[in-house]
Amino acid sequence: MSAAAQPQAKPDGAALAASVRAVARAAKDAAAALSLASAAERTAALKAMAAAIREDAALILAANDKDMVAASGLTPALKDRLKLDASRVEAMAKGVEEVAALPDPLGQVMAEWDRPNGLHIARVRVPLGVIAIIYESRPNVTADAAALCLRAGNAAILRGGSESVNSSGAILASLKRALKSTGLPEGAVMRVPVQDRAAVGELLKLDDLIDVVIPRGGKSLIERVAAESRIPVLKHLDGNCHTYVDGAADLAMARRIVLNAKMRRTGICGATETLLVDRRVAKTYLPPILDDLAKAGCELRGDSETRALDHRVTLANDTDWDTEYLDAIIAVKVVDGVDEAIAHINRHGSHHTEAIVTADEKAAAKFMAEVDAGIVIHNSSTQFADGGEFGMGAEIGISTGKLHARGPVGAEQLTSYKYLVRGSGQVRP
Amino acid sequence: MSAAAQPQAKPDGAALAASVRAVARAAKDAAAALSLASAAERTAALKAMAAAIREDAALILAANDKDMVAASGLTPALKDRLKLDASRVEAMAKGVEEVAALPDPLGQVMAEWDRPNGLHIARVRVPLGVIAIIYESRPNVTADAAALCLRAGNAAILRGGSESVNSSGAILASLKRALKSTGLPEGAVMRVPVQDRAAVGELLKLDDLIDVVIPRGGKSLIERVAAESRIPVLKHLDGNCHTYVDGAADLAMARRIVLNAKMRRTGICGATETLLVDRRVAKTYLPPILDDLAKAGCELRGDSETRALDHRVTLANDTDWDTEYLDAIIAVKVVDGVDEAIAHINRHGSHHTEAIVTADEKAAAKFMAEVDAGIVIHNSSTQFADGGEFGMGAEIGISTGKLHARGPVGAEQLTSYKYLVRGSGQVRP
């Protein structure tokens, strides 16, 4: 990264720790204020954010140009991720407006009841507090993540990839301007002051100021965060998703679903990576399914039974079953019915999204009960694993952990709760 | 700890890691089976556990005698915690029966809806999986924790304090016998094979096999677990709870509540540690309140204003405001109304349980909205912070974290969920 791309010169260890702490402190102070802001105030701030992004489009694009120049060595895919243009800036503003239109989750009474001693107990939704989000060099995530956090009354500390530092900085400046104009604290969106790994290390120590850390991106980043963090982590790990075509599947439906699950978009975490096919139908179903995939440009890797059915299939090795390709490659395995499919998925899957195609309700019920994943789908495409497709509005990712939130993480999943107990002088016997 | 008290000789590092891993693997295999067991099967196993504890009472008491002999150097309070007798064994069996009678949380449809494309989405309660519980030398927790985990379909890995190793081992043997007799896997209750810190260190690395770790007990243990663990932690930290007596409080109610909140039981996490009193009423309310406390045997520490009202009050220093005494000691401070009370609590409290006594609904509403704690109480005693008192049945503790579970952690809080998506061939456009 060029020196020009750094928000400020790199300080020594103690100064770094102090500056990261100051950022987190500002966020925590803002979170206290945000938790008391009304839904209408937060909605107004979100609308102002969208407007500020539109107004500052030229500034944001100029900052992005700087990033693109510095990023000349990146792969085309990474450059495409980093690149902004007028329509992408407009999409970002629209995304923030959509979050502004989401139902406000705060204050909702999740449950309430009376005790025999007359105490009234209510469980009420409250913000989590301060959320740190560590993400790839995707400038739009800066706006998306900040907006979703604000909808749920949380302050956000953002740490995007180094390559996007100027773009993210310009977007952040717009968001802060909007917050200020609506009277909410600018500390509601903060970013890590220095763009290096040591700053993230300091951040992950601040469990007295930060309530949750959400890492997005590569598996190694996420594992590093999970290993280092003293703060609770909402993991967005890899999606090694499977589609299992059962012996009782309708062939036309299976072809349509497999092709979509693998090839609609290969780079998303809900894309199918391994196809499992019931031995009962492998000889008749696999040839057309494999042909669809090959014609769509998919590389085929398979076990020996699959290979025997199509000369384009290369032999899969053991690591293929554990690989999230995020690419036009599929691993294919013939299995002995739903039981072997479930066993294979529970061994090799990443607990993200798993699908079965079958007309046999009993097999489907078994699969849905026994597969250990956040999302289990019957007769549809794994590519539906998405907060928007679930009707939850925007999402910050898909959680593969079991604690707090599993599956799509939207505004509601970015909340906690508290118990409000109302009495009339009761003491405990 | 004597050599006799160890379950087995202390192995070297690699062997230790392997033996801890084998325990966790057995628990994970059992968890898969448990998640498919019916509510009736788990209820039957819980009832069999209670019966086994009763049948094995003599064995359990003999094991406890061994622990008590080895524990001769402990303080009376710790010895009392460790000691079992016939009535405590019976109470343990009864506790397990109560868990057997709790509503089963699994399979519950938490929400369901249809999408415009015809997909049906349901969020359904499932077990967390494998829960590791690290606790004090309280033998009864072995049965309580195992039972609550089983009610929610989870396997438990238990690690009680060293001093209780024989008692816990005997109780565990009874529980396993009961599981076996009802056809559920014995791996549903496991314990760490070796009683030393290194074994806990190995356990905390196993994020591929263990889903949650719940540390109970001292602050230093919990902080060590939070710092070291790669597994998500449900923290049960200290309860530095406050009772604030507002200027609009009824004096008789305030006296009754403060005395109960502090002195009913001083060793529980919901006991009030600091009393805050509104300056408007300090001169008239504090003398009788302090007198009640002193007569009940409570040591009084306070700020200079409090001291001026009662000669028995010694001057509190800065650490008093941050201390969970768990003893008959109270810190007392005069504050400038509800705003200063909230600020003091949010600065010094541990986000556990906080109470306000007032007849002013506006002050109460402000306190309940702005105090950042799992439980906020109006006109009642902080000692009600308890899963049983909340009507949730047994609890494993009070969570002071904001993620996943806040406040009492009962069977429902020991669950996760999964999304079941049912389609008819839909693919994503």
From TrEMBL, chains A, B:
<protein>
    <recommendedName>
        <fullName>Gamma-glutamyl phosphate reductase</fullName>
        <ecNumber>1.2.1.41</ecNumber>
    </recommendedName>
</protein>
<dbReference type="InterPro" id="IPR016161">
    <property type="entry name" value="Ald_DH/histidinol_DH"/>
</dbReference>
<comment type="similarity">
    <text>Belongs to the gamma-glutamyl phosphate reductase family.</text>
</comment>
<dbReference type="InterPro" id="IPR016163">
    <property type="entry name" value="Ald_DH_C"/>
</dbReference>
<keyword id="KW-0521">NADP</keyword>
<keyword id="KW-0641">Proline biosynthesis</keyword>
<dbReference type="GO" id="GO:0055129">
    <property type="term" value="P:L-proline biosynthetic process"/>
</dbReference>
<dbReference type="InterPro" id="IPR000965">
    <property type="entry name" value="GPR_dom"/>
</dbReference>
<keyword id="KW-0963">Cytoplasm</keyword>
<dbReference type="Pfam" id="PF00171">
    <property type="entry name" value="Aldedh"/>
</dbReference>
<comment type="function">
    <text>Catalyzes the NADPH-dependent reduction of L-glutamate 5-phosphate into L-glutamate 5-semialdehyde and phosphate. The product spontaneously undergoes cyclization to form 1-pyrroline-5-carboxylate.</text>
</comment>
<feature type="domain" description="Aldehyde dehydrogenase">
    <location>
        <begin position="322"/>
        <end position="391"/>
    </location>
</feature>
<dbReference type="InterPro" id="IPR015590">
    <property type="entry name" value="Aldehyde_DH_dom"/>
</dbReference>
<dbReference type="GO" id="GO:0050661">
    <property type="term" value="F:NADP binding"/>
</dbReference>
<comment type="pathway">
    <text>Amino-acid biosynthesis; L-proline biosynthesis; L-glutamate 5-semialdehyde from L-glutamate: step 2/2.</text>
</comment>
<dbReference type="InterPro" id="IPR012134">
    <property type="entry name" value="Glu-5-SA_DH"/>
</dbReference>
<dbReference type="InterPro" id="IPR016162">
    <property type="entry name" value="Ald_DH_N"/>
</dbReference>
<dbReference type="GO" id="GO:0004350">
    <property type="term" value="F:glutamate-5-semialdehyde dehydrogenase activity"/>
</dbReference>
<dbReference type="GO" id="GO:0005737">
    <property type="term" value="C:cytoplasm"/>
</dbReference>
<feature type="domain" description="Aldehyde dehydrogenase">
    <location>
        <begin position="16"/>
        <end position="293"/>
    </location>
</feature>
<dbReference type="InterPro" id="IPR020593">
    <property type="entry name" value="G-glutamylP_reductase_CS"/>
</dbReference>
<keyword id="KW-0028">Amino-acid biosynthesis</keyword>
<keyword id="KW-0560">Oxidoreductase</keyword>
